[in-house]
Amino acid sequence: MSDIKFPEGFLWGGAIAANQSEGAYREGGKGLTTVDMIPYGENRMPVKLGQVDKVELDADEFYPSHQAIDFYHRYKEDIAMLAEMGFKVFRMSIAWARIFPNGDEEIPNQAGIDFYRSVFEECKKYGIEPLVTLCHFDVPMHLVNEYGSWRNRKMITFFERYARTCFEAFDGLVKYWLTFNEINILLASPFSGAGIAFQESENHDQVKYQAAHHELVASALVTKIAHEINPENQVGCMLAGGQFYPYSCKPEDVFTAMQKDRENLFFIDVQSRGYYPSYAQKVFDEKGVKLDIHEEDFEILKNTVDFISFSYYASRCASADMNEGNTSAANVVKSIKNPHLEASDWGWVIDPLGLRITMNSLYDRYQKPLFLVENGLGAKDTIDESGEINDDYRIDYLRSHVEAMKDAIADGVPLMGYTPWGCIDLVAASTGEMSKRYGFIYVDRDNEGNGSLDRTPKKSFYWYKKVIASNGEDLA
């Protein structure tokens, strides 16, 4: 595409999350969150999937989030490096338990408010717009232990109080907000997604969809509040994106892919349209789900989001014959291996055309502006003898995806901005590793938590700086 350009004012930047970067997990009055309880190693997945009845800290385990990359103490240095790249936007999240350590208090923790205010002011100093996720996979543990997390309707009130506190405390500093990160992930990874741990003999689907309903009502409610506090506020939902391809043209495979896409888009349908989709009742009937919906919920849900934000790392592939034996363990959203695509070291297929397809599909479905808030290549980086990190593989991945974004814009899709994931190396949410690196900035830390935490720009740092300066024209 020759003459298509990124729009003026396009928001180039990068993304991190509090639980994967901040560390300082008990400093400044912060309470424990779900991610603080997820260890590195063989016990990680059972906790993430909600299979552990009582989740407690174990002195014999290593918890990567406890120190992470120490953004809490190093944010000024980090934001200065992002500014050097030319960032227009910085996606980050607020740790709910820094503002309300238990989650159900009446009065917020002033130290938490002061910390984030300082971070946002630092961003503004460099002309960087914060894009802030209110809940990025970190529910206060007190709410899990005391109320059962999002299975309990009381969570709506607690989240409303938390969100209102943030909208008021950071008014004038933050205008772009996301409610829940990758809301659809709670179906695949209930504890990390929504603080859900299952009791014996529970209908898991009933618990997950009821929890999701509470999140959807909460999201709509705080979207309304954000607009009331400041009409300039823009609120988005957030989808773990990636189109499902049929494995073959066999009609059963095509139908399965459609079903998997619907499962993925289910919550975004509600957040974008303001009501449950027509196919919802059949899904609930098949899964034995009977939602407890209050009459006022239908009216609340009509407060729809302003834009659709999404992550895209890879496309997915679905077959009517999918089973445990033939789906990739690389991602919590199960997918069959696509024989036409190369994969990363962690088994995630590399498919830039899939991004264009996903963007067109989302815009066709919702007709709302899109914001690509996560994308990138997790890879092992090595420092050469001269101290440089030549991550050409990452540049190649990002270049092809920027080109795909440009193609989608040419197709008529409005795109607000682009924030590649883990712009500073951080703890991987999936595995808890540091070796699965995404960043433009290398952080000296290993999987066991050893290292100086020193920051070093990679080759991709200088490449992305050129991309931003040229508004996506110079991709060489």
Automatic annotation (TrEMBL):
Any single Gene Ontology cellular-component annotation: cytosol
Keyword Hydrolase: yes
GO MF, any single term: beta-glucosidase activity
Keyword Hydrolase in annotation: yes
A GO biological process held by the record: carbohydrate catabolic process
Coiled coil: none
Domain of life: Bacteria
Pfam family, one: Glyco_hydro_1
Entries under InterPro entries matching the protein: GH, GH_1_N_CS, Glyco_hydro_1, Glyco_hydro_1_AS
Gene3D superfamilies xrefs: Glycosidases (3.20.20.80)
Residues annotated as catalytic: 374
Alphabetically ordered keywords of this record: Glycosidase, Hydrolase
NCBIfam families, sorted: PRK09593.1, PRK09852.1
Protein name: 6-phospho-beta-glucosidase AscB
Lineage, broadest ranks: Bacteria, Pseudomonadati, Pseudomonadota, Gammaproteobacteria, Vibrionales
